[in-house]
Amino acid sequence: MADDIQALAWTGDGLRLIDQTVLPGRLEHLVVRDTATLVEAIQRLVVRGAPALGVAGAFGVAIAMLEAEREHWPDGERAAAIARIRSARPTAVNLAAGVDRVLPLVGEGTAAVLAEAQALLDEDVRGNRAIGAFGADWILARTGDRPLRVLTHCNAGALATAGWGTALGVVRELHDRNRLELVYADETRPLLQGSRLTAWELQQAGIAYRVQTDGAAAGTILRGLVDVAVIGADRIAANGDTANKIGSVGVALACADAGIPFVVAAPWSTIDLDTPSGAGIPIEERAADEVLTWNGPALAPEGARAHNPAFDVTPARLVTALVTETGVLEVSAGRTPLT
Ligand code: MRU
Predict the structure, then answer these.
(1) Both 138 and 80 in a single domain?
(2) What dihedral angle (degrees, nearest 10) is formed by the CA atoms of 314, 239, 173, 194?
């Protein structure tokens, strides 16, 4: 049950995270009580996914306040630690937005910051339920009466949010309405969020799925095996250009060619109106080892260099619909500008 998957929770004196690096083999938790551990957990993807990062950022401010008190930090150290959390990963705008949401409350004390962080967490779960319902309504109105085959990329599920999920929220809703036949889960190289995390969530929910290589996605779509693709987002520019896990734009191109909807499911907090277009979205470049090695052994010749962008940008013209907690925007049709 997705209701049981709680990627993050405040324990009273720390932030408990599901350690997503060891799933699906082990379900382990890490309780974070200091900012260095939180920054490391964010960068190592112990906690990941844009909405979950937003919640982690908000609680991270409280962690920095408690640590400053405990360790008798000198002036400026707390602000520097909060800045390190805020910029621990650059692409998901939710991380900075989560920090910024609670910052005005720092003067009121830790309890006020914690209450706001918890409010953000609760809002995210409620918002994801709404995204699921709006997304399912929109898809079913366009795809007719048959059971649907849905493709998703990366993990935009309960693990990537405060609960239920965005793209997987839509999938869960379709399943609950008995309208889902199968999910194609792209494995999502190089860190395999699809085969490790999405497959795990789908299995827990009793949803039929197949894991496929990222390279299989376009062919599966062009063979007519997919009715709709639904993905999450890390940052959506004001013109609708959408940054999401590397490989997303290839899925969008195949959907456009096949004439099936490419649907982005994300909360409003992922929309960054200060960034006019995708060209302004910072794309995280990650370590070469993620591509050139596998669990230690090298996959490429010694001296090989890697190109390892963690995200790509899908142009707005390829985004059929953006589903948020307030409804559906038909982006590529240009009927519903974000501003
Ligand atoms: O590098 P990750 O695993 O944090 O990337 C996550 C994604 O790209 C998700 O699809 C996105 O954040 C949406 S999560 C609801």
Answers:
(1) no
(2) 30
Rounded to the nearest angstrom, the distance between the alpha carbon of 141 and the centre of ligand 1 is 27
The pTM score is 0.97
d(CA 278, CA 332): 14
The residue range of the domain holding 91 is: 2-123
AA identity, residue 72: H
Q: Which CATH number covers residue 14?
A: 1.20.120.420
92 C-beta closer than 6 A to ligand 1 = yes
Cβ of 310 closer than 6 Å to ligand 1, yes or no, is yes
Judge if 157 and 288 occupy the same domain: yes
In tens, the pLDDT along 175-198 reads 999 999 999 999 999 999 999 999
Token duo for residue 46 = 């112990």
The separation between CA 273 and the C-alpha centre of its own chain, rounded to angstroms, equals 19
Distance CA 131, CA 272 (A): 18
How far apart are alpha carbons 93 and 157 in whole angstroms?
18
> Containing H/E element for 210?
strand 209-212
Tell the burial category of 273 from Cβ atoms under 10 Å away from its Cβ (0-12, 13-18, 19+). exposed
Please report the atom of ligand 1 found closest to the CA of residue 50.
12
- 123, 144, 168 - which closes a domain: 123
Q: How does pLDDT run across 72-104, given as a tens digit for each residue? A: 999 899 999 999 999 999 999 999 999 999 999
Taking only Cα atoms into account, the Rg of the chain, rounded to an integer number of angstroms, comes to 19
Q: Which residues are catalytic?
A: 234
First CA to last CA distance, the chain: 36
Ligand 1: atom nearest CA of 92 is 12
CA of 313 to the centre of ligand 1 (A): 13
Q: How far is the CA of 106 from the centre of ligand 1 (A)?
A: 28
